Amino acid sequence: MSDPFLDVLGESIKLSVAPVFLLTAVAGMISVLTQRIARVIDRSRFLQMELLNQDKVPLTPVINKIYHQELVKLAQRATVVNTSMALLVICAILIALTILELFLSETVSGRLVTSSTLMYTFIGGVLSFVFALIGLLIEVLLASYTVRMKPISKQTLQL
């Protein structure tokens, strides 16, 4: 004969583990966004140094304008990445609260007793994840649209 407490504990662990997979996805997304923001920061630092060192290596007005425009686009990308990162952190917190509530509700009372809070934390977490994915898509599109696909002619550089 099995112990009822162990049965309840086993069932609560099973229920609590399902949302953990979403947390794994969130961790992967945070890693991707961290890499993307690092690239944005590195590129903006490079452009800022180029603009600051104009007294040593002068830039043509066209290149100067291109660098300034790219810095504006990089700032937009950074804003989108940071917003997505914030949404992922909110998602992780809400999913962790969902896991905690699932685990505690079953182990404290001996049976699954959930409140409406469980529904709100889970749905809020999933919605945050979806909006973070949309943010990632926007950032990728911004990045691909800002890449200059055609070379700058020597004639343009001398303007």
Automatic annotation (TrEMBL):
Domain of life where this protein originates: Bacteria
Protein keywords: Membrane, Transmembrane, Transmembrane helix
Transmembrane annotation, as ranges: 12-33, 80-100, 120-145
Database matches in Pfam families: DUF2721
Protein name: DUF2721 domain-containing protein
Organism of provenance: Polynucleobacter kasalickyi
